[in-house]
Amino acid sequence: MDFDKVIKERRSVRKFKKKRPDWRDILDAIEAARYAPSAGNLHAVKFILVDNPEIIADLAEAADQDFILDAHYVIVVCSDPTQVERSYYERGERYVRQQSGAAIENFLLKLTDLGLGSCWVGAFVDDHVKKALRIPEKVAVEAIIPIGYSADISKRSKKPDEDSFFYFNKYGAKFLKPRRVVEER
Ligand SMILES: Cc1cc2nc3c(=O)[nH]c(=O)nc-3n(C[C@H](O)[C@H](O)[C@H](O)COP(=O)(O)O)c2cc1C
C-alpha cells in the first residue's frame, strides 16, 4: 500500500470478523516494530504474541474491554527499563515509554498495510496482565493490541486541525500556514 494511504487508513478497530488472520502477517508486523528507533539503540521493548483463547479472555477481563474477546491474536507490548535507566537515569523511564510508542506505531501501520485491523489498548489493570502472562516485576506492560480483520463500520475519529497541531517558530504561533512547496530535485 502507498505510504500515505497506510498512515491515513490506520484506525482503531473494535469489531473483528470471524476469519482468522495469518500469523505470518503478524510476524511481519513485529518485524516492522523491531526497526523502530530506540534511545541509545538500547532494546527495552518486547512483544508477546498470544493466541490462547483462555489467555485472551483473561486479557479482555484485565482491560474490561469485551471486544478483545473476538480477536484470534493479541499482542502484549512490554518494556524492560533496566538497561535504558542504567544509561539515562531518571530520563530512562520517559525514553522507554517513547520507544515503546514508536514500536507500537510501526506495528499498527504494518498491520494496516497487510489489511489487518487492530486497536492500541492502554487501559488495563497492570498486575492482572502481568499475572496472566508471567511478566516479571521489573517489566512494564505498555499496551494490549487485539488483531483481526475489521468488521468495524463506526465513523473514523476526527483528527486535529493543522492550525492547532502545527506551530511556526514559536509555540502557539499559528499565523503562518505551512506552504506546500514542490521542489524539483
Ligand atoms: C496510549 C493509548 C491508549 C489507548 N487506550 C485505548 C483503550 O484502552 N481502549 C480503546 O478502545 N482504545 C484505546 N486507544 C485508542 C484511541 O481511543 C484511538 O487511537 C483514538 O480514539 C483515535 O482513533 P484512531 O486510532 O481510530 O485514529 C488508545 C490509544 C492510545 C494512543
Helix/strand layout:
Elements: H1 3-9, H2 23-34, E1 45-50, H3 53-63, E2 73-79, H4 82-88, H5 91-113, E3 117-118, H6 126-133, E4 140-148, H7 162-165
Antiparallel strand pairs: 1-2, 2-4, 3-4
Helix pairs in contact: 2-5, 3-6, 4-5
This protein binds flavin mononucleotide.
Residues 11-12, 14, 65, 119-123, 157 line the site of flavin mononucleotide.
Kindly describe this structure:
With 185 residues, the protein is α+β, with helices and mostly antiparallel strands. It has a single domain (3-153), classed as NADH Oxidase (3-Layer(aba) Sandwich). It has 7 helices and 4 strands. It has a 4-stranded antiparallel beta sheet with strand order 1-2-4-3, with helices on both faces. Helix 3 packs antiparallel against helix 6. The longest helix has 23 residues, at 91-113. The relative contact order is 0.21. Bound molecules: flavin mononucleotide. Flavin mononucleotide binds at residues 11-12, 14, 65, 119-123, 157. Flavin mononucleotide binds next to loops.
Write a compact overview of the structure shown.
This protein has 185 residues and is α+β, with helices and mostly antiparallel strands.
Which features does this protein show?
185 residues; alpha+beta; NADH Oxidase; four-stranded antiparallel beta sheet; 4 strands; 13% strand; binds flavin mononucleotide
CATH topology: NADH Oxidase
Strand order of the largest sheet: 1-2-4-3
Largest sheet: 4 strands, antiparallel
- Identify the CATH architecture: 3-Layer(aba) Sandwich
- Distance between the terminal alpha carbons, to the nearest Å? 24 Å
Bound ligands, named by name, code or SMILES: flavin mononucleotide
Q: Which series of helices and strands comes N to C?
A: HHEHEHHEHEH
Strand portion, in percent? 5-15%
Number of helices: 7
Q: What structural category arises from helix and sheet content?
A: alpha+beta
Outline the low-pLDDT stretches.
none
